[in-house]
Amino acid sequence: MGRNCVFARSVRLAAASVAAALLVVSCSPPDAARDSVTSPFSSPSPGVSAQDELPDKMQSALQDQLAQVMQRYGVPGAAAGVWVPGEGTWQAASGTADVAGAVPVSPGMAWPLRSITKSYTVTLLLQLADQGLVDLDDAAGQYVDGVTNGDRITLRQLAAMSSGNADYTGAEFADEYGQDPARIFTLAELNGFVLGEPAQFEPGTQRVYTNANTNLIGAVIEKVTGQPYSEVLSEHVLEPLQLSGTTYLTDAADWGQPHPTGYIAQDGVPEPQVENPSIFAAAGSLFSTLEDTRVWAEALATGALLDADTQEERLAGAPLKTGPPYDQYALGIGETRGWWGHNGEGIGFTSAAFHDPASGATIVAFMNESNVPGAHPADEAFRSFAEVLADYRTG
After folding, report:
1. What are the tens digits of pLDDT across the range 219-243?
2. What residue stretch is flagged as signal peptide (predicted)?
């Protein structure tokens, strides 16, 4: 099949399934997978040096689990890492980043974080609360005009996915995106597809995961600070944590080469997807490396950028009615079997980044295939790695 034909087919597939793809998550339940700014965050983690490696037996088990997940779902390429304080690290770059070009995955590649971006955005909101610039129980309509039920939806409900607000992935957006999949959308444009739309449910009565909740938070951040979202993110998260490999991108042309290509399987054949990060904005437009995401996962789970009381408040969650395979979802952070973090999915990529506060261990996984029916490959890899660590401790 010629390159132009592949591109055209990819565009048609993306346009036809845009609403589902923009959920940025697999909605399978957990057992479907397997039964004010502080000082810079330290890197690497205490007790883990760049030279230490996990025991050979554990590394072998982790590599085997990665290979099994990739084979099970036909994932072309993956990057993954496990860091355990006092024991060591394991990192892997496996398979192919770009099938057509036969480009192997390399350790330093930047991957789309997709919905892991949500955890950054909500962190910025919580920092504003720490500074007294917002209250989490403020009405969303106080900052963004035209939000349905905006006088009753709170900032807390936006962060917890309990606002009832419509998502932007309806027919109007799908039509505009389908006409020009390379069009660069602004945050304001994405939010414009939501304003005035009928609510899905009464605020606070359910938890339904959408990108629109987080993108409205992005608009709140811009309104309160008077700065573009990307500037606030750099100033208050990326620079304090020294995340030099993490970037907010809305134009795929700015994505450094070499980089992975995203795929969705069609009849068993991985079809390359057209990368357009602007369609996610504050809900999913961050790109990052394995090492930077390790630092972020630990900072997120431990509340390194927040007041202690705010972090405690952040971790108060409940199960989602629809959304990613977490045991519970709190304020821009999910919990799975005691591990706190976030995962993401969308248009050719899945990601997962979690930290276990009890052991200090961190797990990150990136994979360049999405829309696998009933499964989230990167989340499955995370869960299997966590089981390896648990078995090693109890064995």
Report:
1. 999 999 999 999 999 999 999 999 9
2. 1-32
